[in-house]
Structures are given as structure tokens and as C-alpha cells.
């Protein structure tokens, strides 16, 4: 089956963001008081400011700090408190941008909007680059926080999703006095070695079991490198978005075809392939849980290697196995699977930016799905175990949200969503964290 790829599929199939900020909102005048605040913003170091009145009486402001774009919204009655949000991973080569109005186009799925309704100024900063950008995400978020402090802000909250959850962990463990409360959703809250390991193990196991079949992946099969380039070659006259969609089609088609065949014949060879791959890689036997990690590795490994300064996850000495394999088949797997070695400086950099310690001093609400198509649930449980080892349970609560199956467009398949939260759940995340900080009462365990 051939997949008709659209911009929606690019987002859903990869579980990533193209990082576009969309069209600018309708122009509205701001009040004299709001203009005075904008003047103070400029005096505090912001440039390229564009303020716009909101229908609710507040205003949105887009601008730059040290050349990095930001977008904020300030309610009509501001309580001098701020909630910031850290973006997730974006496709290599995509634009570096943020919404000019983070309430009208809420990047958090509702967390920022709920804070705004409670009188908080809300916003986010862009990062220095797309894709892997934890270090600059920390620096640019702290720069935006410091600028708000110059405007008179008294208390700060921080939230983040996916890679942004890792940025949150770095912020609260490295800057313990900067925020009063924090939230991570579907975040890489453990470490990058584990997360990248899932990508590599799935990609390499998939390569072994589909080699020589119609379901084999295209491109380079070195697990430390991209399989396909997300950037078009010069001279072809193809725009970057169109090229990316073409590459996504090449990557997603064989995986979708494998799952189609497996579901058509549950006792057939394809179903056995899916079960073997999932067992070896400790993944859900689910189309999204294959597509998201494999495709991320296929277009993101070059950027990860450059960003970390080398290979973070090595499998050179790893012994792969599966309860579904005989000893002979396990031996064949280990002879056939592609190998790579980690680079010590890259591992050290990844630990710095950022392997969580579980040691922080403010309330942290961590929310995860037990089935997530890209950031597996072991990121949440790893953080929980480190918090327990540090004796820091009073500052931490892990909540499980029901996992969501979402359509993968044009495939006829459904799969586990990455960051599978509803706007209502995002609102509850904010309310739960806010109540915890205000009352000092840690929320109860359980599911949303």
C-alpha cells in the first residue's frame, strides 16, 4: 500500500513538530497601560517587539532577546506571575520559531492557556537550533525568565513536553531557585542514552528481521547515521517541506505495509516479524511505536551526533535476545544486527544536558502515558526511581494519563500517540501543579 503523505502525516507519523508559528493574529490596538509595559519591555532588552491586543483585554507580544524569538501573552489583570513552556523536539532543518500568541496557538495543548486564565503571563522562547537543543533551551528559557523579572514578575512556573521535559529537568536541577513549580508531560525525564537506545534498538532490530523483504527500510543502515537526509540536495528545485514529506513517505510506507500484512494474517510471517522486533527492542507491537522511533532515528541521528559531539548510545557489546527466539535464532540476530560504539565525551555531554538526578527542591508534577509512541514509559519510571533513591518523594508526583490511540493519516492504521493528552488533561495538569504550590499539599497518586 502506498501512503499519501500530507503535512499532518509529517507531524503525526514522526510524533514531532515542524516548529511553525502559523499566521499572525488579527491586529488589535493595545491600551495606553499596555503600551507603557511594552516600553518597559524594550528598556529591559527586548527588540523587534510587536504587541497585539487580545479580545479578552490582554495582549500578546512577539519579540527577540539576544536575537532569539519569543512569544508571550499577558492578561488584562496580570498577577505578576509567569508560566513558561519548553518546546519539544523538531525535525532537523525545520524553522526555529515560536507562536506569536501562545494562548491563541497554545504549544502546550492547554497548560499555558489555563495559567493565563488564572492571571499568569505565559510564553516561551525559541531555541538556537531545531532538533536536539537542550542546552540552548535551558539558556534561552532562563534568559526569558530573567527578562520577565526585570518587568516585575515575582514567581515563575515551568512546563515542558517531550524534549521540553528534559529541559525542565535540567532547569530545576541546575537552577534550583528559578522556579516555584514544574511540570513535565511525556518527557525525556530520565536520560538521552536510554531514549536514543530505544531508537537505535528498534531501527536495528527492524533492519534484521525485514532484510530482503518488501518491508525493508530505505537508505543507509548505519545506526549512528541518518538513513535519509531531511534536507534536499541543492539544484533539484524542491522545497524543504516537500522534500521532507517525500522522505517521510519513503520511511513510513514499508512499516505501514508490514503492519497491514500482519493484521490481515495474524498467524503469518509478517505478524511474527512484528512480534520478534517488538520483543527484541522492548517496544509495543504497534505501528506508531515502530514508526515514531525508527523514523526519528532515520532523519535525526546526524543532528544528534553533531549536537552531543559523538555517539551517545552504543550497542557494540550488547547481547540482544527475545523469549520468542531459539538460541540459534538469537545467535543469528546478534551476528546480524548493526553495531555502533558510544563516544565517552558525547555520553558526558548528554549526562550534563541532561541526565536527571532526582534531586530538586520544588514541586514537580510528571505526567506520562504508559503507552507512548516515541518517549517510552521507562523515562517516567526511571525518574521516579532516582527521586526515591534521593529521598525526594515529597517534591515529586508521577501521574499516569490513559494512553490514546490516534489515526495515522492515510494508512488506515491507529497507533499509540506521543504526548497523548487532551486539552482537558492539560488544564488539569496546570490546576494540579498550581494547587500544590499554593497549598503545599502534594497531589494524590493515580490516573487522570
In summary, what is this structure?
By secondary structure, the chain is α/β, with parallel strands linked by helices.
What does this structure look like?
- This protein is α/β, with parallel strands linked by helices and 448 residues long.
- The chain is 41% helix and 15% strand.
- The protein is built from 13 helices and twelve strands.
- The chain has helices at 7-14, 32-43, 111-117, 134-150, 163-174, 192-210, 240-264, 269-281, 287-308, 327-336, 344-352, 378-389, 423-439; strands at 47-53, 59-65, 68-74, 81-86, 121-125, 155-161, 181-185, 364-369, 396-401, 405-408, 413-416, 446-447.
- Strands 1-2-3-5-4-6-7-8-9-12 form a ten-stranded mixed beta sheet, with helices on both faces.
- Strand 2 (59-65) and strand 3 form a beta hairpin.
- The model is unreliable at 1-22 (pLDDT under 50).
Secondary-structure content class: alpha/beta
Helix content: 40-55%
Low-confidence stretches: 1-22
Beta fraction of the residues? 5-15%
> Describe the biggest sheet?
10 strands, mixed
**Number of separate strands:** 12
**Backbone shape:** globular
Order of helices and strands: HHEEEEHEHEHEHHHHHHEHEEEHE
Please list the strands of the largest sheet in the order they lie side by side: 1-2-3-5-4-6-7-8-9-12
- Helical run tally: 13
